[in-house]
Amino acid sequence: MVMKNPDVEFCGYCITHPSESKINFRIQTRGALPAVEPFRKGLNDLMGVCQHVLSTFERSMKEFRAQKEEEMQ
């Protein structure tokens, strides 16, 4: 999601160690834009995508259950 931002030149991450719950991000931007701005935007965009997937899944499950109930009657 961060790489979709046209102001971002590079975005990468590494996990320091499997037993640690830390992730290091490296974000390189074009110009003087601070890296934290596209990082925050990417996280917000990702939350929007996840919310869309969840709502689509829940709606489909509701429709599927209603269809199964109709078939059983």
TrEMBL record:
The keyword Transmembrane does not apply. It comes from the Eukaryota. Gene3D superfamilies: RNA polymerase, RBP11-like subunit (3.30.1360.10). GO terms for molecular function: DNA-directed RNA polymerase activity; protein dimerization activity. One of its GO terms (biological process) is transcription by RNA polymerase III. Keywords: DNA-directed RNA polymerase, Transcription. This is RNA polymerase I and III subunit D. The keyword Transcription applies. Belongs to the archaeal Rpo11/eukaryotic RPB11/RPC19 RNA polymerase subunit family. The lineage of its organism: Eukaryota, Metazoa, Chordata, Craniata, Vertebrata. CDD domains: RNAP_I_III_AC19. GO terms for cellular component: RNA polymerase I complex; RNA polymerase III complex. InterPro entries: RBP11-like, RBP11-like_dimer, RNAP_AC19. The gene is LOC117002736. Residues 2-55 form the DNA-directed RNA polymerase RBP11-like dimerisation domain. SUPFAM superfamilies: RBP11-like subunits of RNA polymerase (SSF55257).
